[in-house]
């Protein structure tokens, strides 16, 4: 009788140990799963996470950070998550297309432009061309410091924006 009990107990321990090992491996694969997604989908998920939902108080922003343009009549009050997802994907495609000449860096730059505006990167009457763009145009892709420098809001450095830039760079930079 004792022998049967010991066999059952040992079998139970073995099953539990194998089950625990499998669940740990699954948990370790979850963060890695995002790297199997296409770059544009990673950019979408990253923007959606960091932007959060914009309500009526966030005017002129709606959904996941879409800035209302002249002639658009979206309402934060009536917008669904599905509409906001489609609008964010459309915005990201538009911004990535602006940076198509930068090849594999176009998604990274498009994501940054979605947040800070393309004028701050490409330059305009108001802003000079960014160091980030000048460096890429010169063929230098060592851009981590220049990319993470875009973490100021109203002249002050913000820890959450730095966290966002680091996450974007980790997810979207293709060596």
Question: Please, could you describe this protein's structure?
Answer:
There is one protein chain. The chain is mainly alpha-helical. The protein has 2 domains: 1-36; 38-172, Lysozyme, CATH 1.10.530. Helices cover 60% and strands 5% of the residues. It has 8 helices and 4 strands. It has helices spanning 2-33, 39-51, 81-98, 106-116, 118-122, 131-137, 144-148, 159-172; strands at 61-62, 66-67, 152-153, 156-157. The radius of gyration is 23 Å and the shape is globular. It starts with a helix and ends with a helix. 20% of the residues are buried.
Can you summarize this structure?
By secondary structure, this protein is mainly alpha-helical. It has helices at 2-33, 39-51, 81-98, 106-116, 118-122, 131-137, 144-148, 159-172; strands at residues 61-62, 66-67, 152-153, 156-157. Helix 2 packs across helix 3 (81-98), helix 2 (39-51) runs parallel beside helix 4 (106-116) and helix 2 runs antiparallel to helix 8.
Question: What would the keywords be for this entry?
Answer:
175 residues, mainly alpha, Lysozyme, 2 domains, two-stranded antiparallel ribbon
- Spatial order of the strands in the main sheet? 1-2
**Number of separate helices:** 8
Distance between the termini: 63 Å
Biggest beta sheet summary: 2 strands, antiparallel
Low-confidence runs:
4-26
**Mean of residue pLDDT values:** 84
Inertia-based shape: globular
In the CATH hierarchy, what is the class of the largest domain?
Answer: Mainly Alpha
Helix content: 55-70%
CATH architecture of the largest domain: Orthogonal Bundle
Number of domains: 2
Helix vs. strand class: mainly alpha
């Amino acid at each position: 009788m004792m022998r049967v009990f010991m066999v059952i107990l040992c079998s139970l321990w073995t099953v539990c140990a194998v089950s625990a090992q499998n669940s740990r491996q699954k948990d370790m694969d979850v963060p890695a799963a995002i790297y199997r997604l296409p770059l544009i989908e990673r950019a979408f998920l990253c923007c959606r996470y960091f932007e959060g939902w914009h309500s009526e108080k966030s005017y002129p922003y709606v959904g996941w950070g879409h800035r209302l343009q002249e002639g658009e009549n979206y309402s934060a009050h009536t917008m669904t998550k599905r509409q906001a997802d489609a609008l964010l994907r459309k915005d990201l495609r538009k911004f990535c297309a602006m940076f198509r000449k930068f090849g594999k860096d176009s998604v990274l730059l498009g994501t940054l432009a979605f947040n800070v505006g393309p004028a701050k990167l490409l330059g305009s009457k108001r802003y000079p061309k960014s160091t980030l763009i000048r460096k890429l145009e010169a063929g230098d892709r060592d851009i981590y410091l220049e990319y993470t420098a875009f973490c100021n809001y109203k002249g002050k450095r913000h820890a959450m924006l730095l966290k966002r830039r680091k996450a974007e760079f980790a997810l979207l930079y293709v060596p």
